[in-house]
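G., before I forget:
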Amino acid sequence: MQILDRKEIENALSIERVFRLIEEGFIAYSQKKTVIPPVAAMQFENPPGDCHIKYGYLKEGSYFVVKIATGFPLNTKSGLPAGNGMIVLFSKKTGAPLVLFNDEGFLTDMRTAIAGAIAAKTLVPSHVECIGCVGTGAQAYYQLSLLPHVTRCRKVLIWGRDGEKARRLAKDPRLGHFSIQVAPTLDSLAASCNLIVTTTSSKAPLLFAHHIKPGTHITAVGADDIGKQELDPSLFRKADLVVCDSIAQCLSFGDTSHAVRSAAIKKEDLMELGALLANPLLGRKNDTQITICDLTGIAAQDLQIAIAAM
Amino acid sequence: MQILDRKEIENALSIERVFRLIEEGFIAYSQKKTVIPPVAAMQFENPPGDCHIKYGYLKEGSYFVVKIATGFPLNTKSGLPAGNGMIVLFSKKTGAPLVLFNDEGFLTDMRTAIAGAIAAKTLVPSHVECIGCVGTGAQAYYQLSLLPHVTRCRKVLIWGRDGEKARRLAKDPRLGHFSIQVAPTLDSLAASCNLIVTTTSSKAPLLFAHHIKPGTHITAVGADDIGKQELDPSLFRKADLVVCDSIAQCLSFGDTSHAVRSAAIKKEDLMELGALLANPLLGRKNDTQITICDLTGIAAQDLQIAIAAM
C-alpha cells in the first residue's frame, strides 16, 4: 500500500482532472452505475463531534473507496482544524488497499468545493454580479478558491455568524484576486449577490425566501448531517429548480429533507446533479429563475478525487 | 498519525494483554457501555468479494476505531491471501487519527481467534478429549494456535471440504505441538471431539443435530455475513445454551439468525458472551450439556486489539 501525506497530495492534484472525474462520478451515480451504500456515522458527545464513513464504487471501475471524515468543531478553540480523516483506495479485483491518502480532510474539502463549482457552472445565470459566501470556515475558503474556474466574477460578499472570522477570511491573502467585502447582514448580501454559497454548520435556517431575488443561484453545502439546516423551506417553495447531488441522501438529511418534510416541495420535483450534467437542457431556463443545488457529499466524489490523486 | 505495518504489529502484540482487553470489550458491550452502529458492508460480483466496515467506541474510553476488512476468496487461486484490510484508531477528543494498523487483516484474524479461545475457556466441559476443527483456511490456523491458552488438550481432528488443504493444515509446522489427524468425515470428527470450532465460509449447514454428542461445545466463527451458514438449526434445538457475541447482530446474520428464523430457538433464550464473562454462573452446568457460541465479530474487539497493539 502506498501512503501519501497531505503535502504530497496537494502538490500532485490536477484540478482540471478532478473536475472531469467528479463530473463523471456524478453522472455515473445518477445513471445508477455506482454502488454506494448509505453513509455510516457515529456521534460523540463530550466533546461533541461526528465521524462519517462514505464508501462505494463505480460498477465499471477497478477501485472502491472508503473515506473516513471526522468533525470536532471545538478543535478550533485549541488551534486544531475541525475536520480530519483519510481516504483509502482499494482494488476491486483483490480487496487489497492500494493507496492511503493521509490527507487530514483535504480531499474532502476539495471534492466538496469542486462539487460547488460544478453546481455553479451548471446553474448560475449568464452574468454573476457578485458571489455571496455565507460562512467563514475552511469550506468557505475552498468554495471561493475554486469559483474562478467557472465564473469571471471577482466580487465577493462574505457573511458569517462570527464577524471577526468573516473579516479574517475577507483578508485571506490566498483570495487576493477577489475584491472581498464583509456583508453586515444576510439581507445586504442577498440583495447584491446572484450566486450564493452556504457553508456553515448551522442547525437552523439562515436564508429565507424573502432574502432571495429573482435570478439567483444558491449552492448549499453546509447541511451534511441530520439536524443541520441552512435554507428555510420557504426558499425551496420559491425556487424554480432544486438539484441534489443524491436525491435519496438529500431526502434523509440536508436542506432538501427539511423542505420535503414540511411539504414546501415534493420529492418528484427534485433533480440530480448527474442528470443535469448529462443533459444541460434540464437546467436553468432564463436569468430570472431561482435555482438551488443541495450538496450533501457522496462517495462517488471521494472515489473520483482519490483516483485523480493517485 | 503513526503507521504500523504487519511485521511491527505481530512483534509488538502481547497476547495476554489482548485477551484481557477483549474480555473487557465483550463485557462493556453487553453492559451497553459501548456505541457500536450496525456494520457497513459492500458486496462485489466479479470477482466475488466483500468489504465490511466495523466501527465504534467504549463510552468511557479515549479512542474510537474504524476497521475495514475485505474478503476476496478467489485470491487464494493466485497465491494471495483472501483477507485484507486495516484498522485505524482515532482520538475521541479531537477526531484525529492516531495509529493506522496496516495489518493486512492480521488483527482481525487474531481478535476473532481470541474470541474463539475466550468462548472455549468459558464454555468447554471439564475435560476436552479432542479438538475438532471444521475448515482449513487462515482462521482455522489462528483458532488452533490460540486454543493452547485455554485447554491442555493437544489432540486435533481437522475436516475440510478440500481434503488437500486439510492435509496441508495438519502438517503446518507452526502447529507442531498438536497431534493432528485429518478426519475423513464430519461424523467421525464429531464422534471424537467435544470442542469443535467451525471456520468455513460455507453457505449451507455442515453440522447437524445428529452429529453432536452430549457434552460438546461448538464455537461457530465462519458465518459472519448474510447468506453464510455452518450450523443447522436442528443443532440449536438440541443445544442447552446458545451464546452470541452480539445478540442484535446474530439475529441479523450468522448461524443464530437462521436458527431463530426457523423457530429452532427463541431470541429470548440467547445469552451474550459479555454477560457470561461478567457472571460465569450463567454458563455450562455440567459435562453433558451441549453449548454453542456464535461469533460474528464486533467493533469492540477491533477497538480493544488496536489499543493492545498501540
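The CA atoms of residues 195 and 209 of chain A lie 15 Å apart. Residues 106-123 of chain A form the longest helix (18 residues).

More on Monday.
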